[in-house]
Amino acid sequence: MATQHFKLQNLSCSSCVMHLEGMEDDLDGVQKVDVNFKKLTMKVEYLEEAMTPEGIVQAVSAMGYIATPETLANNSDKKGSSWKNIFRS
Length: 89
Hints:
Blueprint: E1 2-9, H1 14-21, H2 23-26, E2 30-36, E3 41-46, H3 53-62, E4 66-69, H4 70-75, H5 83-87
Antiparallel strand pairs: 1-3, 1-4, 2-3
């Protein structure tokens, strides 16, 4: 089993969370979906032989939301916004 974290866009209410978390019942290979509305993140546990991160992104897109795998989202922000850099003088 694999785990992938995503950044989310276009969530407007708690119903969006329930809609996304319903993917675990609707998509083959998706075992568990946890959405954090406040942080606009989603954690998906899935079977690698039945699902891919790209497939999850497509399913989320079909529901009207935008999901970006966190590794891609984090790579676009490589300027160092870590706490270490904030407190350096």
